C-alpha cells in the first residue's frame, strides 16, 4: 500500500507539472490582456501612453518575454514560495485566494449542497431503479433531466425572481442585511442562512441529476445480477435485498465521484455566486478570469488541480474499502 501511494504521488507531481504548463500557455493566449485593458483605460483618460511606457508595463507584470520564459519564471517563483501578486488588487495571491471569508463562503455552500445532493440523489436513483418504467421512474427522470438541462445562471435567476422578487420569502442577493442590527449570534446566523438558501437550492437541484442517473444505472445493473436473484429465491425481504446486498455493490462506481468532491468543496460555484452576489472564491476567480489576472488564475487552478489528484488517489484507495475484491498492486 505504501509503495503504491508513493508511486501515485510521483505520477501526480508529473501531472501537475503538465497541467501548469498547459494552463499557463492557455492563459497567455487569452484574448483578455490585463495590460492592454489598462492602456485603453489610460488612453480614455487622456494620458500620453508611449511605446516605452507600454514595454515597461509588460515588464512590470512579467509578460514581456515568451510564454516559455514566463512559465519558467513563474515556476521558479513558486518553488521559492512566491505565488505572485494580483494584477487587480496588488496584494499577494495566497492571501487573496485563501481569504477565510471568501473560501469559507464557497465551502459552506458546497458542503451543505453536497450533503443534500447525496441525501436526495441516491434515494431517487434507488427508487427509480426498483420501479423501472413506472410513473415514479418517469417522474424522477423528467425532474432530473430538467435540472441537468437548465444553465445555472438561468435557473438561479428564475429562483431569485420567483422567491425573492415576487414572493419576498428570501433576500434578493448578498450574504447579510446591512440594515439589521443582530441581537445575538443566532439572529446573525438565521439571516445568513436566509441569504444562502437560494444559492444552495440552485446548486443542489442542478447537481443531483448526474448522481441520480449514475445510481439508477448501477442499481439496475446490480439488480439483474445472479446473486440478487439467488437472494430473492432464498426468501429474503425485498428491503434487505435492495439495501444490504444490491446497494453496497452500487456504491463501488459512486466512489468514483469522490475524486471530484474534494475540489468542488473549495472551487466555488462561479456563476451561482455571481447571480446571488456572494463574495465567494468562485465569483472572485471569475472576476480574475474576465480581467486577465494571470497570477490569481494560475494559483487558483493549480490549487484545484492539486485537490483533484488527491481526490483521485483517495477514490482509488476507497475502492479497496467498499470492495474487498479490489487489490492495490
Describe the structure in your own words.
- The chain is mostly helical and 329 residues long.
- The protein has a domain at 100-322: Orthogonal Bundle (MetI-like fold).
- 75% of the residues lie in helices and 0% in strands.
- It is built from 15 helices and no strands.
- The chain has helices at 2-28, 34-44, 51-60, 67-79, 93-97, 100-130, 135-149, 152-166, 185-223, 226-233, 238-254, 258-267, 270-275, 281-291, 294-322.
- Helix 12 packs antiparallel against helix 15.
- The longest helix has 39 residues, at 185-223.
- It starts with a helix and ends in a 7-residue tail after the last helix.
Q: In CATH terms, what is the fold-level topology of the domain at 100-322?
A: MetI-like fold
Mean pLDDT: 82
Which H/E pattern describes the elements?
HHHHHHHHHHHHHHH
Helix tally equals 15
Biggest sheet, open or closed, and with what strands and sense? none
Query: Nearest-angstrom radius of gyration?
Result: 25 Å
Low-confidence stretches: none
Helix- and strand-based class? mainly alpha
Amino acid at each position: 500500500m505504501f509503495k503504491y501511494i508513493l508511486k501515485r504521488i510521483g505520477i501526480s507531481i508529473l501531472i501537475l507539472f503538465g497541467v501548469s504548463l498547459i494552463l499557463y500557455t492557455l492563459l497567455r493566449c487569452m484574448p483578455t490582456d490585463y495590460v492592454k485593458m489598462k492602456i485603453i483605460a489610460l488612453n480614455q483618460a487622456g494620458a500620453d501612453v508611449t511605446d516605452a511606457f507600454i514595454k515597461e508595463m509588460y515588464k512590470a507584470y512579467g509578460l514581456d518575454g515568451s510564454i516559455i520564459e514566463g512559465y519558467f519564471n513563474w515556476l521558479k517563483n513558486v518553488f521559492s514560495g512566491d505565488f505572485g501578486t494580483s494584477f487587480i488588487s496588488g496584494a499577494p495571491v495566497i492571501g487573496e485566494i485563501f481569504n477565510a471569508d471568501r473560501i469559507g463562503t464557497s465551502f459552506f455552500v458546497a458542503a451543505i449542497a453536497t450533503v443534500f445532493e447525496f441525501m436526495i440523489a441516491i434515494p431517487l436513483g434507488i427508487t427509480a431503479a426498483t420501479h423501472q418504467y413506472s410513473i415514479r421512474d418517469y417522474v424522477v427522470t423528467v425532474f432530473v433531466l430538467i435540472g441537468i438541462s437548465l444553465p445555472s445562471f438561468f435557473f438561479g435567476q428564475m429562483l431569485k425572481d420567483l422567491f425573492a422578487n415576487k414572493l419576498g420569502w428570501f433576500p434578493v442577493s448578498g450574504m447579510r442585511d446591512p440594515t439589521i442590527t443582530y441581537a445575538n449570534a443566532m439572529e446573525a446566523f438565521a439571516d445568513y442562512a436566509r441569504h444562502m438558501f437560494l444559492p444552495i437550492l440552485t446548486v443542489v437541484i442542478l447537481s443531483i441529476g448526474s448522481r441520480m442517473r449514475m445510481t439508477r444505472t448501477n442499481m439496475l445493473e446490480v439488480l439483474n445480477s445472479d446473486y440478487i436473484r439467488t437472494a430473492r429465491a432464498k426468501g429474503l425481504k425485498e428491503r434487505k435485498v435492495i439495501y444490504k446486498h444490491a446497494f453496497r455493490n452500487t456504491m463501488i462506481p459512486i466512489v468514483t465521484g469522490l475524486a471530484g468532491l474534494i475540489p468542488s468543496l473549495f472551487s466555488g460555484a462561479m456563476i451561482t455566486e455571481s447571480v446571488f452576489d456572494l463574495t465567494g472564491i468562485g465569483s472572485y476567480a471569475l472576476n480574475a478570469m474576465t480581467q486577465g489576472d494571470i497570477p490569481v488564475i494560475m494559483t487558483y487552478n493549480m490549487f484545484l488541480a492539486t485537490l483533484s489528484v488527491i481526490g483521485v488517489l483517495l477514490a482509488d484507495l476507497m475502492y479497496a474499502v467498499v470492495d474487498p475484491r479490489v487489490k492495490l498492486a
